């Protein structure tokens, strides 16, 4: 039996009609399936009791990339560079993070998902890297001229971590599509990776089975076998939860 992996979705309005759709970047579901999981989409507008009911049927949770986390969630005023937020999605993903960590259910955060996990557990964010963080590195591509798979900078991984064990390496070249990043790590997390300019690129909760997040987009660079292994490790961790939903 394949483990059921919940991938969060969000509402999107079709410009010409105003019709609402639930959407999620399809590559996340694809790589989960390729790794042996059964992806299902989790709408962010579900009432909390229904969200909880759906969560209880999952073996793992994937929090994908997307818009900025509303600074109100970590007690900060909104910076002028924060253009798009989704309060419903923030609420749903913060709840899913707290539940998964409490239940030791495998959870993987990607880009925004890394930021959400940190905020949900009590951490804060730099709202805009160029405005708050001194670096010469670029952390955000310019679409459509640059592809999501474009490698931007190196990431240095702490050697004695789950992330290093999965990657089988302590330095990887990654893509990058974000203008925010972790500022103050949450008390329960361990920072596992940095870009070579000091921007936090990975974190995990050491005493959990699989509670891990990365700031880059591994779903877009699975030509690198190390990125495939990340999803395989996540799905395998979720497999151990089959039967204990």
TrEMBL record:
<keyword id="KW-0378">Hydrolase</keyword>
<dbReference type="GO" id="GO:0005829">
    <property type="term" value="C:cytosol"/>
</dbReference>
<dbReference type="InterPro" id="IPR044668">
    <property type="entry name" value="PuuD-like"/>
</dbReference>
<protein>
    <submittedName>
        <fullName>Gamma-glutamyl-gamma-aminobutyrate hydrolase family protein</fullName>
    </submittedName>
</protein>
<dbReference type="InterPro" id="IPR029062">
    <property type="entry name" value="Class_I_gatase-like"/>
</dbReference>
<dbReference type="InterPro" id="IPR011697">
    <property type="entry name" value="Peptidase_C26"/>
</dbReference>
<dbReference type="GO" id="GO:0033969">
    <property type="term" value="F:gamma-glutamyl-gamma-aminobutyrate hydrolase activity"/>
</dbReference>
<dbReference type="GO" id="GO:0006598">
    <property type="term" value="P:polyamine catabolic process"/>
</dbReference>
<dbReference type="Pfam" id="PF07722">
    <property type="entry name" value="Peptidase_C26"/>
</dbReference>
């Amino acid at each position: 039996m394949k483990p059921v992996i919940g991938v969060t979705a969000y509402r999107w309005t079709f410009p010409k009609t105003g019709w609402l759709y639930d959407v999620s970047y399809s590559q996340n579901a694809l790589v989960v399936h390729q790794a042996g999981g059964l992806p299902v989409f989790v709408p962010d507008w579900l009432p909390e009791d229904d969200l909880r009911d759906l969560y209880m049927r999952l073996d793992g949770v994937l929090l994908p990339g997307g818009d900025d986390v509303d600074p109100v969630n970590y007690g900060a005023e909104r910076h002028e560079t924060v253009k798009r937020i989704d309060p419903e999605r923030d609420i749903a993903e913060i709840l899913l993070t707290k539940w998964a960590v409490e239940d030791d259910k495998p959870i993987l955060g990607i880009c925004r998902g890394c930021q959400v996990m940190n905020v949900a557990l009590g951490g804060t964010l730099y709202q805009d890297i160029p405005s708050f963080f001194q670096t010469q590195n670029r952390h955000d591509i310019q679409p459509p001229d640059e592809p999501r798979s474009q490698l931007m900078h190196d990431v240095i991984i702490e050697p004695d971590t789950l992330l290093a064990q999965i990657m089988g390496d302590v330095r990887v070249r990654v893509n990058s599509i974000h203008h925010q990043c972790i500022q103050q790590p949450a008390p329960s997390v361990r920072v596992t990776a940095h870009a070579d300019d000091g921007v936090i690129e990975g974190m995990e909760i050491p005493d959990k089975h699989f509670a891990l997040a990365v700031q880059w987009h591994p779903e877009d660079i699975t030509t690198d076998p190390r990125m495939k292994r990340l999803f395989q490790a996540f799905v395998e961790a979720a497999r151990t939860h089959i039967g204990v939903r």
